[in-house]
Amino acid sequence: AVACLRLVLFSARESLADHAVVPTSSMEYTLMPGDRVLVNKLAYGLRVPFVGWRLIAGGTPVAGEIVVFDSPESGKRLIKRVVAVGGDIVQIRKGQLIVNGTPYALANDPSIENIGDHRAELNLSSGSGSRYGPSEIPAGHVLVMGDYRGNSHDGRMFGSVPASDIYGRAIAVLLRRCDDRMSAWQGTRVVLGGGLTLHQKRY
Prior knowledge:
Shape: globular
Number of strands: 18
Number of helices: 2
Structural class: mainly beta
Order of helices and strands: HEEEEEEEEEEEEEEHEEEE
Oligomer: single chain
């Protein structure tokens, strides 16, 4: 009975929701190294546990969302932001996104970009990183990038990613290291969606 329960729980974790640990600084300042992030694995459809086959189709990734997928180069699990979708014409100059001719950065603050319904606070302390485009994103693909533009290995290097290869959408920071301690967020959603922010409760 215990073994069956463990299998059910593990299957739910594989198919419904899971958490991921942010391994690097590539998504600063939205996500920080060591953050534990809640991932909604139903956001883009229901998959068969362990093999990843899509059983039921779901939504499609939209610009601004933070998603989890496997690197097309190494197979390593990555977490990045969708910055463009199929049909968009994208170029990146000095770390700034220009999509379909429209700059996403605020005119008075190049470190802030409004991407769809999401606001990205960029880390530009290491420069702007690689140039890109102009290039049209293929249908059924997305372009992903890190918010730390000068310190992120992303779609500028490995190209666009099939939307069907994305496992889930990051929806909350559950734990964040702060002053060498772990801080738990009060509530279940932070700046990963809709611009909603919550205060931290420190332990």
